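Incident log, support desk, overnight shift.

02:14 A customer reports that sequence design results differ from what the structure should imply. Their input is reproduced verbatim below. On-call engineer (initials T.W.) acknowledged and began investigating.
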C-alpha cells in the first residue's frame, strides 16, 4: 500500500461518524423500562395494604406488564405507564394518612378503587388472551398483536391517570370533611361554654336572691324584668306605631292625659276585659311594642310586673312565670307581700307545683287579701313572647291557668304577646 493510501486511510479512521443504536441496545432499553415499571408496581402492591381493591389491582397490573414485556415494543407506552404508577405511589402515603385520620378513605374514592380493580382485571383478560395465542399466530399477526398490546398499555395508563386524579380529589374532600368536623366541634364547644356562662350567671342571680329576697323560699327570674340591664330590647321610635300604642293606653287608663298627644285608638277595647293578646309573626316587633308599653306604664306607676320570655335560660322556664310576677307584685302592697310569704312558707314545694296551684297560692289569694284591705291599686302585668317558653302542651298551661281564675284577677290586667301558635290559640279560646 502506497504512503498516500496509508495517509488517506489514517485520515478517514479519525473521522467521527454518527452511529445508530443496535438491536441489542434496543432490547436492553426496553428491558430496563419494563423492569423499572415492574419495580414500581411491586412498591404499589406493598404500599396499598390499607386499600385491598388497589392492592388487588396492582397485582393485576404487575401480571399485565410482565406479559407486555415480552410482547410489546412500545417503550413510550411503558414509560408513560411507569410515570403514572410512580405518581400513584407518591399519593398512597397521603391516602393512608387520610384514611387513618378520618376513620376510612372517602366513600366516593373507595368506590373508585373497586371500579379500578375491576377495569384492570378486564384489561388483564385481554392480555392473557393475546399471550395464549400459539406462536405461529403471533408470528403471522405480529403487527396486529403489538397494536393490541399497545392499546392495552394506553388503557392502563388512562385508568391509572384517572385514579390519580380521583385520589387527589378524595384527599381534598377528606381534608374538607375534617375541617368541617373541626368547625362543628368548635361550635359545640362554644355552645358548651355559653351554657356554662349562663349557668354561672344563673347561679349569680340565685345568690343575689338569697341575699335580697323579700320572700324567702320563692324562686324568681331577675332577667325576665323589662328593665333588666342585659335585656338588649329597644322601644318604638318616636312617632311610630302611635295608633296601636294609643289603643293599648286607652284600654289601660282611659283618662290618662298623655293620650292627648296620641292619635285616636284604632278600636275601642272594653275596659272590663282582663287580658289583651297582641299577636304577630316573628320579627313584627311585638317585643319592641311590649317594651315601650312597659316603660310607659312604669313611669306612671301603672306597671305591676313583667316577664319577657326567651328560648333559653330562666326566661324559658314556664315554672318561673307566676313566681316572678308574684315577687314583683309583692313590692306594691305590704298585705300582698305578707300573704305571699305565708303561702311560700306553708308550701315549700310551690316553685315546682302545677301552674294553676301556683296562680292560686301566689297571686289570687294574696290579691283577695289586698283588695279586702284596699292596699293594691290597678296595675298591668306584661307577659312578652309567651310562645318562646318551654310548653309542649296542646293548650298553653299559662293561659289555661289564667282562664281558671280570670274573674279573680282584678284589679290586674294582663298584656300577652306571642306568635299565633296553636297551643296559645287554644288557650285564648278558653277565655
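02:41 Re-run completed on a clean worker. Output:
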Amino acid at each position: 500500500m502506497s504512503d498516500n493510501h496509508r495517509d488517506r486511510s489514517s485520515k478517514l479512521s479519525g473521522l467521527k461518524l454518527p452511529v445508530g443504536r443496535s438491536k441489542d441496545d434496543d432490547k436492553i432499553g426496553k428491558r430496563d423500562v419494563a423492569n423499572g415499571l415492574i419495580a414500581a408496581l411491586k412498591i404499589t402492591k406493598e404500599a396499598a395494604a390499607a386499600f385491598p381493591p388497589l392492592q388487588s389491582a396492582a397485582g393485576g397490573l404487575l401480571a399485565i406488564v410482565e406479559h407486555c414485556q415480552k410482547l410489546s415494543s412500545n417503550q413510550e407506552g411503558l414509560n408513560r405507564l411507569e410515570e403514572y404508577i410512580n405518581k400513584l405511589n407518591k399519593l398512597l402515603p397521603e391516602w393512608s394518612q387520610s384514611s387513618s385520620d378520618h376513620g376510612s378513605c372517602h366513600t366516593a374514592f373507595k368506590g373508585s378503587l373497586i371500579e379500578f380493580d375491576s377495569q384492570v382485571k378486564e384489561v388483564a383478560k385481554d392480555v392473557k388472551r393475546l399471550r395464549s395465542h400459539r406462536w405461529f399466530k403471533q408470528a403471522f399477526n405480529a403487527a396486529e398483536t403489538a397494536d393490541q398490546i399497545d392499546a392495552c398499555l394506553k388503557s392502563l395508563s388512562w385508568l391509572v391517570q384517572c385514579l390519580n386524579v380521583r385520589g387527589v380529589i378524595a384527599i381534598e374532600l377528606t381534608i374538607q370533611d375534617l375541617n368541617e368536623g373541626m368547625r362543628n366541634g368548635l361550635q359545640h364547644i362554644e355552645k358548651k361554654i355559653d351554657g356554662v356562662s349562663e349557668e354561672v350567671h344563673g347561679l349569680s342571680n340565685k345568690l343575689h336572691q338569697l341575699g335580697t329576697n323579700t320572700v324567702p323560699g320563692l324562686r324568681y327570674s331577675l332577667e325576665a324584668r323589662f328593665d333588666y340591664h342585659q335585656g338588649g330590647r329597644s322601644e318604638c321610635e318616636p312617632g311610630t306605631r302611635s295608633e296601636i300604642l294609643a289603643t293599648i293606653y286607652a284600654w289601660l287608663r282611659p283618662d290618662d292625659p298623655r293620650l292627648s298627644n296620641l292619635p285616636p285608638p284604632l278600636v275601642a277595647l272594653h275596659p272590663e276585659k282582663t287580658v289583651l293578646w297582641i299577636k304577630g309573626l316573628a320579627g313584627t316587633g311585638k317585643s319592641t311594642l311590649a317594651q315601650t308599653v312597659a316603660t310607659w306604664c312604669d313611669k306612671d306607676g301603672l306597671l305591676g310586673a313583667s316577664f319577657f320570655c326567651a328560648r333559653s335560660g330562666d326566661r324559658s322556664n314556664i315554672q318561673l312565670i307566676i313566681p316572678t310576677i308574684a315577687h314583683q307584685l309583692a313590692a306594691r302592697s305590704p298585705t300582698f307581700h305578707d300573704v305571699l310569704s305565708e303561702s311560700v312558707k306553708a308550701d315549700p314545694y310551690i316553685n315546682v307545683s302545677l301552674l294553676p296551684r301556683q296562680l292560686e297560692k301566689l297571686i289570687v289569694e294574696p290579691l283577695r287579701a289586698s283588695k279586702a284591705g284596699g292596699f293594691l291599686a290597678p296595675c298591668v302585668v306584661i307577659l312578652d313572647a309567651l310562645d318562646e317558653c318551654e310548653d309542649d302542651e296542646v293548650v298553653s298551661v299559662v293561659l289555661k291557668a289564667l282562664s281558671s281564675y280570670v274573674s279573680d284577677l282584678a284589679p290586674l290586667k294582663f298584656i300577652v304577646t306571642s306568635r299565633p301558635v296553636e297551643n296559645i290559640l287554644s288557650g285564648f279560646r278558653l277565655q
